[in-house]
């Protein structure tokens, strides 16, 4: 490589791998705008009455998807200023979505 | 609301290719183990952002550590400038106490990058540099969703996992009564007794038959005070030497001792059988005798000193290490280190007690930072000597350099319950020697074998991906949440991260990176000569 110098063994391994795959691959759909479809993001539908109770996925996962990796406008807690720890107990959305905190308006 | 409605309008790769024909859709050569953190703007315009990286500087030279793959790179001026361009205007380089998250990035469009470098570098040179940085995981192209964004589900190691090390509690008793002992003065709170020869033989058989393709296995004689059961150790060494020949493997022996039972005959036996020795000694008399006392309260320093000196002069086959425990009130690392080096120890390592808030032995927060300051000064000496191809044998630095050099992405902090197990005095298997006699952490026995279901349950629970707060920390794959035993005693659950020393560990790893880059830059041969040979 010309601009970065691999120092430790792992870095050297990455460099070796890079040299191996220098030829251009044919990769199907590599550049498609995949959006949220390839990540764990369950539940975007509501049932006939507009609720989620009858569905298999919870509203928490929906919220989490909005805050984390997509920018669909939804009411997610303001994690920058006011609710810094909102998702702290959710190490992995796939497993820990039940641990997402609910936020109530003050004085409610 | 449908799935398709939610898909943001990211720019397809083909449109990016139109603006930069030289940027092919190379797949990432590696999948980052966890998602990079997106701090930057999300404009959707094709361009470049930094991945999660820790950038540091030594003199005029710039380096970068990539946490997701534990790789370390040196940067040239051009790549440094590209990285600089991707920092927000208020970016502050390294802080004295390393923060948890790597600094933020900003989004720079390709057009902007071209513009900045236009007079000096051609577009194809810019694209080539960006590709290089991208392939090494340092930055990513944005506007494309070609990188994984969710952490993968916890992946367990291949099972059955081959065993490499057994720590045998050969004597559940000790002649000393050190106040800080995690084994409750040597007997782990259970009746004092010695391991039988039958149990010891079974342990050797268990290790050899469960070691898979490993050619070398290690048996650690531990206690209590292992030399209280010297008769067993002598017999076991003979037995293991026969058994290893049959199994076609090598068996290495090491021992942790308080040195009180060392005589010329014992030392000759240890030397003849290449048994590595680690002596528990805390430094000069005034520090050592604070806690390392006989049960009567009498300090043990004067008694062990001549024995240790004899060990260091008579034992010729292995390096002899000192293990010093740092307790409340003792932060004089350098004083202890040089005292022990002057005695003749080849290696000296320090273990600060941090296990409990109310613990009378635990170092306070301030003391921990003083220890780090002492470590830092000693690490400087280490680096100076390493540049002259000399090794001062400061184990704490050697260990962190060894980890950084290998760059292993770890999901567990140590080998406990994985390739290493503790064997209790009655032959029960435990996660590690520190959990000896703890019913909750028993994982079968050398007689009946390893309890695979319990092992799997432990490995699932203790996996890094379950540790809240670790996911966004840049040292996660080196620290992996810290010691299971400490988490258990301090937080009541062994899969809790040891959040009480996060800042300390991060600052320590930061110091390690600094030492690593300084040595690697000026004397890379040091690693082949001293670090690679140490083994894991």
Strand content of chain A: under 5%
What is the CATH class name of the largest domain in chain B?
Alpha Beta
Which structural class should the secondary elements of chain B be placed in? alpha/beta
Rg for CA atoms of chain B: 26 Å
What is the name of the CATH topology of the largest domain in chain B? Answer: TIM Barrel
Main sheet summary of chain A: none
- What is the count of structural domains of chain A? 1
Notes on the structure:
The complex is a heterodimer of chains A (108) and B (536). Chain A contains 3 helices and 1 strand, in the order E-H-H-H. By secondary structure, chain A is mainly α. Chain A is elongated, with a radius of gyration of 21 Å. The termini of chain A are far apart. With 536 residues, chain B is an alpha/beta fold. Chain B has 2 domains: 27-142, Outer Surface Protein A, domain 3, CATH 3.90.930; 165-530, Aldolase class I (TIM Barrel). In chain B, strands 7, 8, 9, 10, 11, 12, 13, 14, 15, 16 and 17 form an 11-stranded mixed sheet that branches. In chain B, strands 5-1-6 form a 3-stranded antiparallel sheet. In chain B, a hairpin with a 4-residue loop joins strand 14 and strand 15 (428-430). Chain B is globular, with a radius of gyration of 26 Å. At the A-B interface, strand 1, helix 1 and helix 3 of A face helix 2, strand 4, helix 5, helix 13 and helix 17 of B. Strand 1 (4-6) of chain A pairs antiparallel with strand 4 of chain B.
């Amino acid at each position: 490589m010309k601009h970065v110098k691999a120092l430790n063994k792992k870095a050297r391994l990455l460099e070796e791998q890079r040299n191996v795959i220098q030829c251009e691959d044919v990769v199907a759909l590599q550049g498609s705008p995949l959006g949220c479809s390839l990540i764990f993001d369950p539940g975007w539908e509501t049932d006939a009455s507009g609720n989620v109770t009858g569905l298999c996925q919870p509203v928490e996962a929906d919220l989490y998807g909005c805050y984390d990796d997509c920018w669909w406008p939804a009411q997610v807690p303001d994690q920058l200023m006011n609710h810094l720890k909102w998702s702290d107990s959710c190490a992995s959305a796939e497993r820990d979505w039940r641990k997402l905190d609910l936020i109530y308006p003050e004085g409610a | 609301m449908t799935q398709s409605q939610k898909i943001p309008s990211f720019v397809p790769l083909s449109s990016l290719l139109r603006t930069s024909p030289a940027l092919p859709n190379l797949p990432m050569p590696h999948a980052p183990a966890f998602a990079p953190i997106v701090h930057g703007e999300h404009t959707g315009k094709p361009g470049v952002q930094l991945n999660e990286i820790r950038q540091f500087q030594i003199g005029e030279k710039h380096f970068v550590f990539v946490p997701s793959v534990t790789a370390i790179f040196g940067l040239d001026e051009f790549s440094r400038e590209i990285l600089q361009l991707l920092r927000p205007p208020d970016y502050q380089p390294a802080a004295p106490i390393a923060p948890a998250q790597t600094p933020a990035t900003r989004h720079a469009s390709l057009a902007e990058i071209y513009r900045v470098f236009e007079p000096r570098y051609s577009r194809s040179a810019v694209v080539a540099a960006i590709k290089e940085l991208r392939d090494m995981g340092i930055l990513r192209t944005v506007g494309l969703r070609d990188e994984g964004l969710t952490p993968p589900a916890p992946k367990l190691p291949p099972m059955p996992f081959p065993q490499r090390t057994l720590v045998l509690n050969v004597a559940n008793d000790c002649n000393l009564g050190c106040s800080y002992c995690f084994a409750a003065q040597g007997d782990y709170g259970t009746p004092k007794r010695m391991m039988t020869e039958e149990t010891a033989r079974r342990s050797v058989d268990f290790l050899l038959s469960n070691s898979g393709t490993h050619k070398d296995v290690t048996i650690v004689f531990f206690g209590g005070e292992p030399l209280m059961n010297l008769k067993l150790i002598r017999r076991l060494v003979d037995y293991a030497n026969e058994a290893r020949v049959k199994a076609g493997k090598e068996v290495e022996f090491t021992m942790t001792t308080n040195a009180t039972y060392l005589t010329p005959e014992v030392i000759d036996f240890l030397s003849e059988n290449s048994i590595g020795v680690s002596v528990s000694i805390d430094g000069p008399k005034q520090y050592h005798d604070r806690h390392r006392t006989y049960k009567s309260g009498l300090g043990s320093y004067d008694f062990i000193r001549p024995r240790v000196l004899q060990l260091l002069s008579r034992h010729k086959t292995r390096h002899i290490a000192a293990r010093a425990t740092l307790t409340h009130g003792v932060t004089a690392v350098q004083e202890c280190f040089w005292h022990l080096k002057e005695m003749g120890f080849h290696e000296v390592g320090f273990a600060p007690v941090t296990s409990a808030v109310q613990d009378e032995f635990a170092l306070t927060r301030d003391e921990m930072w003083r220890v780090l300051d002492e470590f830092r000064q000693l690490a400087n000496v280490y680096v100076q000597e390493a540049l002259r191809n000399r090794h001062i044998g400061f184990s704490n630095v050697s260990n962190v350099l060894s980890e950084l050099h290998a760059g292993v992405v770890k999901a567990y902090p140590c080998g406990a319950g994985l390739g290493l197990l503790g064997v209790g005095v009655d032959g029960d298997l435990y996660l590690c020697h520190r959990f000896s006699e703890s019913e909750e952490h028993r994982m079968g026995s050398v007689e009946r074998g390893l309890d695979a279901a319990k092992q799997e349950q432990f490995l699932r629970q203790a996996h890094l991906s379950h540790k809240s707060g670790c996911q966004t920390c840049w040292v996660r794959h080196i620290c992996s949440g810290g010691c299971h035993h400490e988490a258990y005693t301090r937080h009541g659950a062994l899969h809790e991260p040891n959040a009480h020393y996060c800042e300390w560990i991060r600052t320590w790893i930061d110091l390690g990176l600094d030492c690593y880059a300084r040595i690697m830059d000026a004397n890379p041969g040091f690693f082949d000569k001293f670090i690679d040979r140490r083994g894991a």
